[in-house]
């Protein structure tokens, strides 16, 4: 609704009276003026947008310092779509293909980095990650490397690109893919890795799980049980593709200059330990720099958990490095004190599949107790069975503890322990403490049931039902130790 005009002095009554005395002669000139304005606007539109004209091509979309073009390229039967950001200055220019991190990433997620590179004079390709062959349960780093190389070939075929200064920039998971792409495709003349890891994806994820578990409120003593064991199970059951990819052999074989930027407050990859790996394995014409006060996404951060704006200085330094024919240069930041990262060593054969199997078996057995109660009622048997109270308590609390442990393990697997489990009590989230209390309650109730059975032996269905509950509680006790359910 438009605001009232404060300069207007007529009262509402005077305005209404004037409106009542308007005549056609007063309105007719206004209609003629409106008609002329409409015809003038129509003529202007006819000049600027002639009938039948096509929309302006993407290449004509000018921005400050660069133009954008929509492109498509093919690898392994997959049609990939992307956007090329072309500097407005005359070429030939250096060129770079951005390789995204893990997940179904789209080109827009790295638009800020692409804009910074294009503004600095670098032809930059960002593209939507493939859908066919890439999911949480399926991926191939070789295929992703070939995707990036196909994109680079689309750039080096341009007249405004200098093929001698064309390379790839990989973030996070892209930091494993980028050196692989260089090893498979000699047209890649330099490699940039940001937020990369010098360890396998499985080891990096286990380390990251422990970081986020600590932020959630778990004490360090829960790291092995929840942070590492979940990854071991995922690897052993095939839920973690490319988990054991070892980057070190590729770093040793890398024959082109490489720039590695690590984040001081990275909580997804062990930056401190990775820095030592890169410094020892990369050739002399490469550099590994640790950027202070940024997180895994290279956003301003004091702790790696809360993020601010995208840091601009690392982008400027990277653009300058790529423009200068990837010449070795000293890092512009004073290296922060190296983090004392302890990265777990993982192998598929060390997976604790037995504990998770025991948890699931215990759940199935606990579910059988109320089921047999329904059968008992259906048969018309009335009255409280022997040892009903301790067996019911053991069943309910044991099922709660086992189910809760499985759900927490699933949460760690699906999210990397990012998020919150509520308030923290006694160096653990309250939700986990309640699960531990449930397990202890189940064990105590089962012990009471055993003692009662010794005093008064059970027979028939009562003995069978009691044996099921007691056995399931024993399975729960065995599984609870490696899962940290009995950790004080």
UniProtKB/TrEMBL annotation:
Keywords: Hydrolase, Membrane, Transmembrane, Transmembrane helix. GO terms for biological process: proteolysis. The chain crosses the membrane at residues 37-56, 353-375, 387-413, 433-454, 466-486. It comes from the Bacteria. GO terms for molecular function: carboxylic ester hydrolase activity; serine-type peptidase activity. Residues 143-299 form the Peptidase S9 prolyl oligopeptidase catalytic domain. Signal peptide: none annotated. This is Alpha/beta hydrolase.
């Amino acid at each position: 609704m438009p605001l009232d005009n404060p300069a207007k002095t007529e009262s509402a009554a005077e305005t209404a009276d004037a409106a009542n005395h308007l005549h056609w002669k007063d309105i007719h000139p206004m209609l003629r003026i409106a008609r002329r304005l409409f015809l003038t606007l129509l003529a202007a539109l006819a000049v600027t947008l002639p009938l039948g004209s096509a929309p302006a091509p993407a290449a004509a979309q000018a921005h400050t310092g660069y133009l954008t073009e929509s492109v498509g390229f093919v690898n392994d039967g997959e049609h990939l779509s992307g956007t090329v950001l072309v500097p407005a200055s005359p070429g030939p220019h250096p060129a770079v293909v951005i390789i995204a991190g893990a997940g179904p990433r789209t080109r827009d997620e790295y638009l800020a980095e692409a804009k910074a590179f294009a503004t600095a004079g670098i032809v930059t390709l960002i593209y939507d990650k493939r859908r066919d062959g890439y999911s949480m349960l399926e991926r191939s780093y070789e295929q992703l490397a070939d995707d990036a190389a196909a994109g680079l070939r689309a750039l080096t075929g341009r007249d405004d690109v200098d093929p001698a200064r064309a390379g790839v920039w990989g973030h996070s998971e892209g930091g494993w893919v980028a050196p692989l792409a260089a090893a498979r495709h000699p047209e890649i003349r330099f490699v940039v890795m940001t937020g990369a890891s010098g360890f396998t994806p499985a080891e990096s994820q286990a380390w990251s799980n422990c970081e986020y578990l600590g932020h959630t409120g778990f004490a360090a003593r829960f790291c092995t049980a929840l942070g590492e064991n979940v990854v071991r199970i995922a690897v052993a059951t095939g839920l973690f593709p490319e988990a054991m990819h070892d980057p070190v052999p590729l770093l040793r074989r890398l024959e082109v200059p490489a720039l590695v930027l690590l984040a001081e407050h990275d909580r997804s990859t062990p930056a401190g330990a990775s820095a030592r790996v890169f410094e020892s394995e990369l050739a002399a014409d490469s550099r590994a720099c640790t950027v202070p006060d940024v997180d895994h996404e290279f956003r301003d951060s004091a702790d790696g958990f809360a993020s601010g704006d995208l840091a601009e200085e690392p982008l400027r330094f990277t653009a300058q490095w790529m423009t200068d024919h990837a010449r070795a240069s000293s890092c512009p930041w004073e290296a922060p004190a190296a983090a004392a990262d302890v990265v777990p060593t993982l192998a598929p054969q060390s997976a604790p599949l037995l504990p998770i199997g025991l948890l699931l078996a215990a759940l199935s057995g606990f579910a059988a107790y109320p089921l047999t109660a329904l059968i008992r009622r259906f048969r018309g048997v009335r009255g409280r069975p022997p040892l009903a109270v301790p067996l019911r308590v053991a069943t309910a609390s044991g099922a709660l503890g086992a189910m809760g442990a499985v759900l927490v393990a699933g949460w760690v697997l699906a999210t990397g322990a990012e998020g919150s489990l509520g308030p923290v009590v006694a160096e653990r989230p309250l939700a986990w403490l309640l699960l531990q209390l449930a397990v202890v309650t189940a064990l105590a109730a089962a012990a009471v049931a055993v003692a009662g059975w010794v005093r008064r032996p059970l027979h028939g269905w009562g003995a069978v039902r009691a044996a099921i509950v007691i056995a399931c509680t024993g399975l729960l006790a065995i599984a609870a130790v490696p899962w940290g359910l009995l950790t004080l």
